[in-house]
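Quarterly update from the structural biology core.
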Amino acid sequence: MMTVEITIRLATAADAALVADFSREAFTDSFAGYNTPDNMNKFMNGPFSRERLMAETSDPDNIFLLAEQEGETIGYVKMRNSEHTKEMPSAKAIEIARIYVSQRTIGKGVGKMLMETAIQKALEKKKEIVWLGVWEHNKRAIEFYKKCGFEQFGDHIFMLGDDVQKDLLMKKWIG
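Predicted structure, tokenized:
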């Protein structure tokens, strides 16, 4: 059986449309079944609009890593500098704001590769902590983060349209 190589590369401003479209598709695939169409539409046309997502790609505080296989994007991670978490005010932290893989590649190691690359990138930037927020009902993702060495340290509110949801905050000390 032949394995097809997965590569991970740094996204550039030229990838803005690709990142935005992949983000919206992955978010819809992952969460539309758990939320009302009205709340999904409000979120997708507001904070998760294609225009806003495209603008994120050229923001110097953001880092996007793309996972590709045979020229197709199959996942990505968005990291952003984030020194302002009240639970860890003095730590040099970076947030994994998003990590998505295509539905057909879940469980095939793409997320693990993206996480390992993100942690390496955080170490290169002299960070001490990598942290993230994950929806409290996303059990698969929570288990994945635990396997990667993350532990819960708090929670916060996430608004999806008009729906108040709770994200668990998880961190991993790396430095």
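The chain has one domain: 6-173.
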